[in-house]
Amino acid sequence: MITRMSSLFLRTLRDDPADAEVPSHKLLVRAGYVRRVAPGVYSWLPLGLRVLNKVENVVRREMNAIGAQELSFPALLPKEHYETTGRWEDYGDALFRLKDRKGGDYVLGPTHEELFTSTVKAECSSYKDFPIILYQIQTKYRDEERPRAGILRGREFVMKDSYSFNMVDEGLEESYQLHRGAYRRIFDTLGVEYVICAATSGAMGGSASEEFLAIADNGEDTFVRSTESDYAANVEAVVTHPPAALPITGQAEATEHHTPDCTTIEALVEWANREGIAVRGRDVTAADTLKCVIVRITEPGTDDEGNPHRPTLAGVLVPGNREVAMKRLEAALVPATVELADDKDFARNPFLVKGYVGPRALAEHGLQVLADPHVFEGSAWITGADKPEHHMVGMVAGRDFTPDRVVEAAEVLEGDPAPDGKGTLTLARGIEIGHIFQLGRKYTEAFEVYIPDESGKRTVPTMGSYGIGVSRLVAVLAEQMHDEVGLRWPATVAPYDVHVVIANKDEAATTAASELVEKLSDAGLDVLYDDRPKVSPGVKFKDSELLGMPLIVVVGRGFSERKVELRNRFTGEKLDVAYEEAVATVQKALQEL
Amino acid sequence: MITRMSSLFLRTLRDDPADAEVPSHKLLVRAGYVRRVAPGVYSWLPLGLRVLNKVENVVRREMNAIGAQELSFPALLPKEHYETTGRWEDYGDALFRLKDRKGGDYVLGPTHEELFTSTVKAECSSYKDFPIILYQIQTKYRDEERPRAGILRGREFVMKDSYSFNMVDEGLEESYQLHRGAYRRIFDTLGVEYVICAATSGAMGGSASEEFLAIADNGEDTFVRSTESDYAANVEAVVTHPPAALPITGQAEATEHHTPDCTTIEALVEWANREGIAVRGRDVTAADTLKCVIVRITEPGTDDEGNPHRPTLAGVLVPGNREVAMKRLEAALVPATVELADDKDFARNPFLVKGYVGPRALAEHGLQVLADPHVFEGSAWITGADKPEHHMVGMVAGRDFTPDRVVEAAEVLEGDPAPDGKGTLTLARGIEIGHIFQLGRKYTEAFEVYIPDESGKRTVPTMGSYGIGVSRLVAVLAEQMHDEVGLRWPATVAPYDVHVVIANKDEAATTAASELVEKLSDAGLDVLYDDRPKVSPGVKFKDSELLGMPLIVVVGRGFSERKVELRNRFTGEKLDVAYEEAVATVQKALQEL
């Protein structure tokens, strides 16, 4: 197949779009792959659509290979389904809601658990209908608060979502592993650099869950991995293994000290070392101090009288060298939401002495005390004394204060021991490209899916939910594979296999280029042919770099010696090839990409 | 490729769905191709999705062949685009409107003239960028007042819409003809029985326009065709050629008659013939009487003070043997809307004597008089005398009354002369499957698309707009090709090429069937294999008829003599074939379909 640039609907731009911050966004717009229509809403121009379709096909092939069956649900969905599961409310502002001419309430589907579950309920009646894996590749809608980075986080986007239904839990594990394998093959085929991260299940409910994160400095998600094993996890999912409890007996009594101007950890550590206070024979560090952070926790839903739950205050204890990681804390307290307490909270509770809060006052005044696992039994701390300009030294957990609950609340730091006991953790950023999830029976129970099992017993099937951000993957590939001059597409998804540039005005060269293009097409290749008569070679070269086909063939000056130049967009390598051998050389180079 | 029915996500239904009236709707639901989610909103289950995709691919191939370039616009569109063209208002309740979290107004795109035009404006800057044909195959949304017949008229549906942009009018004609050819090839490939009808341009503006109508008794559109030529037209577009004017001199004076109880045409004709009134020496028929129908015409938009235009009353003159065809009248008066006057209108205007309205009173009281072309100059009529129980005889057009305007207002009748002068018209019903349209500069002017032509002159490109109802075509094929027992798919779009049914419990037969299925698949065919172990042959046969693959192979009793049966779903023909020759015979039969 041949596309001639003289008639291609394409305009490349010299300048980055004003609203673009990340390279993929800049380049996809500059190269004419996508165009912005509204915040987070994009058009796919011809080249972009070709990449999107190719990504879809890679996904489709691997889904079919695990026996998943493709169908397609509407995007316009009646409210009822989302009321059944409570997500009409839970989704909040992220749901696009609308009314039809008769006043009926509808949503634009943000994800389709509801439709799949109710359809399985309607179509299936026997254990023999299971297991099932169903999927669709479909346009979804989420009214993101901050759509960003072009198609990386859009409000209208293409997703592959699939759902497994099994009569027994072991079946769910099997469907989950099938997906895990398919996802690995998909991302490997596309050449994405990614990690599989243990994830928390968040608001979705359910148990096991892993995220596939493409590694990218611009990523929104932080993850950790071990220096010495395959361990990788979303920071929310990192589990801290505290040391064994220390004996309390024999530890010195806690003592109160006057500590003026010690409202920061740094000042406190400096004071302690100035005073000669030592911990197990060494200088005090920030890790020996205890931060006592006051937060406001709100449970979702309403109380018995139908009013939203009021927030309650709690104290969170973390070592002084770590911040409270709000996302980790929230993941631990799901489905509640957590915010930092504000000045009004302190004003209303004068026993909270700002800068000098300690665990004792909390307990005395009935506030819940949540401790990070680092604050383990027998550990001793320098902490606030609950009065201005005073701190306590030698406050021992389990003796001088006792947490109500241990939760993962502290940030994960580079160098922390890996939870699997092998090596230490490094921090990196990534973009979520896939998520697999053992959902359990939350949705099948909500929709009352009852299926008689082999013995006739009424059984609720268990469900898995699995997603791939298909349109996002186009941005991720651009993000990971571009260089300073433009896009670079792997052969699997490049809009065209090869880009032929005519850069010689000689009539014989022009004829030869056209013939070469025909021959490449006859050999089954998709060819982009820059035949624009009045465009300079320099502009053509720049465009070919920007557009990013993996191979570029230049019919240029060398044609006087019947040579063409083969450029590899990834390696930058340039090779002179005899015109007669050009087709074979291109085919070979494509296989080697 | 092989799909086994033992694991296929499919439930066939014995009964027609309660809300289904037309065969395609009943069968597509019963055969498990689609499922209703909300009025006019359907899910595509695996078999249905396969047909939809195949139809899409036929469309895509022919669009690419005329040099059209595929892209994809969002469905979620900001209000601004539709305000520029006034369609935010004009579309009325048919537009799905919604707000995002920030209060911004959006629509779900019902058709994309706006997006294509503004994109061409943004991307094109030179006459060298033209001509362009762009298209997409995309999900569209229209809040139909009466969604009907399943996917035949849905609220969420798939359309191919394309748009041509040309610098000169001759180019538009060329792009139009390219589409006309592509559409013919598409519908011919699919095997649809259709006519190309001259159409009015309706509210879209523009000039030449043709509709592709699939012939179907259940169709919503009435069209006419000639008994002796290729002429076909939407009834709205039928042009009446009146006879030459008759001489007025020499015609008898009009006379007033007492006509009690003659408030119907039948009674009036009976009275006339009883009185011995003759027309050119023959008995009076209904065609000699003149109906004077009062209508209310409302112009769109607002008056100078911003109020909606008030309706004005007018009289419409048609021969007594024809009804006023409101759609034809409205097409003639576009963009105004037309309704019949009601009792209040008569009460307010006592000069309108119900049952005895004639053209004279209208003129005297300043009402506009609209005459159908059948009411031509010199024609004489029996008509109301504008007082109770009285009619006039011999009222001559051009002498006793003069229409203000001639408009196509009367219904077209079977047997009317064809407008092309060849043969007479027959009436039939159809379903619109395609529409091609020389739109002109309405949208390019609204978006101020100015392109310098070769001489540098600022030029507004002219546009064509072309649509195919892709999801509707699935229903149309079902509608035209089904029989009393089920669906019948042409090989081009059938979900599978062949349906293999095992109807013999013998182990050797089962093994042979499985091997046959593998061989068919190896030969490149898509095979649906009914391997369900506990389902009776009778049920399997019924399902195979319902599902409608073009060829069915039964491995049944005959296998004891190593024979299988090949059934042709279209002809009903059954053929015994030696097992060893089955693959070759199926391949041959497929080619001959």
TrEMBL record, chains A, B:
Annotated Gene3D superfamilies: Anticodon-binding domain, Bira Bifunctional Protein, Domain 2
PROSITE patterns documented for this protein: AA_TRNA_LIGASE_II (PS50862)
Reaction equations catalysed: tRNA(Pro) + L-proline + ATP = L-prolyl-tRNA(Pro) + AMP + diphosphate
Subcellular locations according to the entry: Cytoplasm
Keyword presence, Protein biosynthesis: yes
InterPro entries, per database record: aa-tRNA-synt_IIb (IPR002314), aa-tRNA-synth_II (IPR006195), aa-tRNA-synth_II/BPL/LPL (IPR045864), Anticodon-bd (IPR004154), Anticodon-bd_dom_sf (IPR036621), Pro-tRNA-ligase_IIa (IPR002316), Pro-tRNA-synth_IIa_bac-type (IPR004500), Pro-tRNA-Synthase_IIa_type1 (IPR023717)
Top-rank taxon, per record: Bacteria
Domain Aminoacyl-transfer RNA synthetases class-II family profile intervals: 35-490
Entry-linked SUPFAM superfamilies: Class II aaRS ABD-related (SSF52954), Class II aaRS and biotin synthetases (SSF55681), YbaK/ProRS associated domain (SSF55826)
One GO BP: prolyl-tRNA aminoacylation
Gene Ontology MF: a single term: ATP binding
Keywords: Aminoacyl-tRNA synthetase, ATP-binding, Cytoplasm, Ligase, Nucleotide-binding, Protein biosynthesis
Pfam families hit by this protein: HGTP_anticodon, tRNA-synt_2b, tRNA_edit
GO cellular component, one term: cytosol
E.C. no: 6.1.1.15
NCBIfam families linked: PRK09194.1, proS_fam_II
PANTHER family membership: MITOCHONDRIAL RIBOSOME PROTEIN L39/PROLYL-TRNA LIGASE FAMILY MEMBER (PTHR42753), PROLINE--TRNA LIGASE (PTHR42753:SF2)
Free-text note regarding domains: Consists of three domains: the N-terminal catalytic domain, the editing domain and the C-terminal anticodon-binding domain.
Function: Catalyzes the attachment of proline to tRNA(Pro) in a two-step reaction: proline is first activated by ATP to form Pro-AMP and then transferred to the acceptor end of tRNA(Pro). As ProRS can inadvertently accommodate and process non-cognate amino acids such as alanine and cysteine, to avoid such errors it has two additional distinct editing activities against alanine. One activity is designated as 'pretransfer' editing and involves the tRNA(Pro)-independent hydrolysis of activated Ala-AMP.
Subunit architecture: Homodimer.
Homology family: Belongs to the class-II aminoacyl-tRNA synthetase family. ProS type 1 subfamily.
Name of protein: Proline--tRNA ligase
Gene source species: Corynebacterium heidelbergense
